[in-house]
């Protein structure tokens, strides 16, 4: 690991060297956006901004960096929430932005494959799939900004994971530049291909530490013939799980999304984004958003009505709202989708992207609430993809206090929440990744054998340690 | 790589050393089955047979082998078709059989998770899922013998990949012993977990060369409310693809299997397994088996009838048989499932487990047939999972000749078929893996950057080269 200690700065001389090996206009200076973390946690640093136009240019950049041992930080849409795209220490890196590689190279509706460059924005990919009568199911709050390369690098989740899997499950192949600058042509459209180790899935989720994804082939799905969306006011989180089980018994794999929201989220919306139309004047403590997508010949709204009748009868839900139009559907989704923005406006002391086994959800919520009460008085907004066991458990100051007042408690809060997650066999990095924020958590909670294997793989593929140093694994 | 050159034999002294570190009864001599390849291609070698009962014992065995640099060949059900479980060269290895670790530890119908030890037989796992009202979709000809550890190690495919994905897509977590003897506790039940590199998917498909899977958590699915099965006599392979597209337009993801069979397969059945009830007295040149699994409220047989009416009208299919009972369904499946056995009885000169992009299927079949005709006269049985682009393209002698007569042509036949697959951007190892059989193919057709990365990963995780040496990658 000696090599990693001798990383060099991307200084003016290096910028010149890089520029000389590329067509004109590829090298510049990082802008403010490249150095900012969306929640304002850290200030990043960067020496050079590289904006390549082809995979070969990406390879040239990485090769030049490898020769000179200059760090490379790949940069997609900049929406990551764990600091994976922000270099905070070590020599100033090359920030490698994929924002000029946005082509959607092709959509094959018959094969259900879409081929795309890494810089394409998720919303554009979804629209291209829809234009071909297909669905690309990856969907999340930042889809208007997030780029597919970053979404794959972080194995992003979102609202449709329950039915369609996370980003990894939606990717057939990748083209990528490895840390030595070699270009791997892995853009397969095959559904079955066992020619050697699964390098694709190793790069997916590696957050740019093992290479840079430059393009991908994505799996499309048929669009359900009919969709239905509803909000159910449920008794408690345990009732939400009962509701999910009953919905599955009725609708099998027709459930596309199953989201839990605590009243706190609606109160934040009322406080910060008052133009949002809330579904009820007195929000219940717990609300579930359920979306179904069914085959031709089935009636989504009717199925949701039948489901509500059953769960109301069973005492699991006491109020329900089934969208009767596209406008109502959009309004229901707007409530869920604006919660992250409301959270940002309130300002969390500590945010936790966690998952636990489904059955452990109620226990997690109860234990975390009790343990936090021992630390102090807080407002907790607990919401998220409960069908995947994935909750965003975010801790805020009470009204009248700011997060600065609680700076000294942040580590204790995080530790408290993560310890409970770990005790319940959960994950402290469910869908946002590890980035730089959760490196200490990974060291604390990670399996030692797995960590040792990860370090060995990193050293083998990136012996100089140039690729996104300090993300996922501590820089040596 | 010097270390790998100094591998030691699993001799009597080593057997004693191993036995001394384990409870009684774990160490013995390999049986004939451990040294035989199902198609009789090679004779294997083995010094010691180890039959551990716990993951800790597996770890102790691997650790002892790592210390002494003795090779380890993991052994599941012995059904692999590419020699991954048969050591053919180098010092005689420890054959590590998982056949005493067969417990199904638990089935959680609500979470759709089944936890199982690596030696459990696939049919038993499927039965356990069914007993809980769920489906474990992995299904293939050898399911009565194949063990889940081997199925994961080879990322097995089978008949339901079209709808549910291959073995990798059905696995949530693994427990595994890494090449240094460390036990990785990765038996997660989580649907979202981004805590570091995807070691699970790296072990899946690595064919025992990066460690030994000792247990797994598997993803279950709801059972479709109703199923329907049909045989359609189609005009040609291109019509089969049109049929698939129309079926998808009508039934979305309700299509569970879509298999193509050439008349040659039915003729082999008539010749070798005459008790098989064939669907037609005069088999058509091409038959498609289609299975649908639909939600409650839909009528599978009716849907298949409507589909047949449409494709018959369009000239794609000229005959059809829709199973009207469970007995008929079983009879239809028996035709498809017995073809591999009939092939074995006839004796292939060369078998090819290939995949190509869906649209390239007709071109592959046409080009391969024409190119083989240049080499000589053969019977070709082309069948398989055409919905996945995955065909088994097996080449046999004409009546009256034996495969021994064609020994000298085997390499030319294989090269001819594989060159066409490669030219069409396909895979020469679709669902059976690389094993020892296809190491030269991987070297010939594999992407150089990927191969270099694979070798670096192998050297990093298994520096002494003890894990299944010679499989997937040539032993150094």
From TrEMBL, chains A, B:
<feature type="domain" description="FAD-binding PCMH-type">
    <location>
        <begin position="35"/>
        <end position="223"/>
    </location>
</feature>
<dbReference type="InterPro" id="IPR004113">
    <property type="entry name" value="FAD-bd_oxidored_4_C"/>
</dbReference>
<keyword id="KW-0274">FAD</keyword>
<dbReference type="InterPro" id="IPR016169">
    <property type="entry name" value="FAD-bd_PCMH_sub2"/>
</dbReference>
<protein>
    <submittedName>
        <fullName>FAD-binding oxidoreductase</fullName>
    </submittedName>
</protein>
<keyword id="KW-0285">Flavoprotein</keyword>
<dbReference type="GO" id="GO:0003824">
    <property type="term" value="F:catalytic activity"/>
</dbReference>
<dbReference type="Pfam" id="PF01565">
    <property type="entry name" value="FAD_binding_4"/>
</dbReference>
<dbReference type="InterPro" id="IPR006094">
    <property type="entry name" value="Oxid_FAD_bind_N"/>
</dbReference>
<comment type="similarity">
    <text>Belongs to the FAD-binding oxidoreductase/transferase type 4 family.</text>
</comment>
<dbReference type="InterPro" id="IPR051264">
    <property type="entry name" value="FAD-oxidored/transferase_4"/>
</dbReference>
<dbReference type="Pfam" id="PF02913">
    <property type="entry name" value="FAD-oxidase_C"/>
</dbReference>
<dbReference type="InterPro" id="IPR016166">
    <property type="entry name" value="FAD-bd_PCMH"/>
</dbReference>
<dbReference type="InterPro" id="IPR016171">
    <property type="entry name" value="Vanillyl_alc_oxidase_C-sub2"/>
</dbReference>
<dbReference type="InterPro" id="IPR016164">
    <property type="entry name" value="FAD-linked_Oxase-like_C"/>
</dbReference>
<dbReference type="InterPro" id="IPR036318">
    <property type="entry name" value="FAD-bd_PCMH-like_sf"/>
</dbReference>
<dbReference type="GO" id="GO:0022904">
    <property type="term" value="P:respiratory electron transport chain"/>
</dbReference>
<dbReference type="GO" id="GO:0071949">
    <property type="term" value="F:FAD binding"/>
</dbReference>
């Amino acid at each position: 690991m000696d090599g990693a200690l001798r990383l060099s700065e991307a200084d003016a001389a290096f910028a010149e060297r890089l520029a000389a090996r590329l067509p004109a206009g590829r090298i510049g200076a990082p802008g403010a956006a490249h150095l900012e973390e969306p929640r304002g946690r850290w200030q990043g640093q960067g020496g050079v901004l590289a904006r390549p136009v082809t995979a070969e240019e990406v390879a040239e950049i990485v090769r030049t960096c490898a020769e000179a041992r200059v760090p490379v930080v790949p940069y997609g849409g900049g929406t990551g929430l764990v600091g994976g795209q922000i270099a905070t220490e070590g020599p100033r890196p090359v920030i490698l932005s994929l924002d000029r590689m946005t082509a959607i190279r092709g959509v094959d509706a018959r094969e259900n494959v879409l081929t795309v460059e890494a810089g394409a924005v998720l919303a554009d990919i979804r629209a291209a799939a829809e234009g071909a009568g297909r669905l690309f199911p990856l969907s999340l709050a930042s889809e208007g900004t997030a780029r597919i390369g970053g979404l794959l690098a972080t194995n992003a989740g979102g609202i449709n994971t329950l039915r369609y899997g996370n980003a990894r499950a939606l990717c057939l192949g990748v083209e990528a530049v490895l840390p030595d600058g070699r270009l791997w042509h892995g853009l397969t459209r095959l559904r079955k291909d066992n020619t050697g180790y699964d390098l694709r899935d190793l790069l997916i989720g590696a957050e740019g530490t093992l290479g840079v994804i430059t393009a991908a082939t994505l799996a499309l799905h048929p669009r359900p013939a009919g969709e239905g969306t509803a909000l159910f006011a449920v008794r408690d989180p345990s009732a939400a799980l009962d509701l999910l089980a009953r919905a599955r018994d009725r609708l099998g794999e027709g459930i596309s999304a199953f989201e839990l929201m605590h009243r706190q989220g609606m109160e934040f919306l009322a406080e910060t984004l008052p133009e949002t139309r809330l579904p009820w004047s007195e929000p219940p403590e717990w609300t579930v958003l359920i979306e179904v997508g069914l085959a031709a010949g089935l009636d989504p709204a009717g199925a949701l009505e039948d489901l509500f009748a059953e769960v109301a009868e069973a005492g699991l839900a006491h109020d329900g709202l089934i969208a009767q139009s596209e406008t109502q559907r959009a309004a229901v989704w707007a409530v869920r989708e604006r919660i992250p923005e409301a959270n940002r406006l309130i300002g969390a002391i500590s945010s936790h992207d966690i998952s636990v086994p489904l059955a452990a959800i109620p226990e997690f919520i109860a234990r975390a609430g009790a343990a936090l009460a021992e630390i102090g008085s807080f407002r907790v907004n607990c919401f998220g993809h409960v069908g995947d066991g994935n909750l965003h458990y975010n801790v805020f100051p009470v009204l009248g206090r700011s997060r600065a007042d609680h700076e000294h408690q942040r580590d204790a809060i995080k530790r408290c929440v993560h310890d409970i997650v770990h005790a319940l066999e959960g994950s402290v990095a469910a869908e946002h990744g590890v980035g730089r924020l959760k490196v200490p958590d990974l060291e604390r909670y990670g399996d030692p054998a797995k960590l040792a294997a990860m370090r060995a793989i990193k050293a083998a593929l990136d012996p100089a340690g140039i690729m996104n140093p300090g993300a996922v694994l501590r820089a040596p």
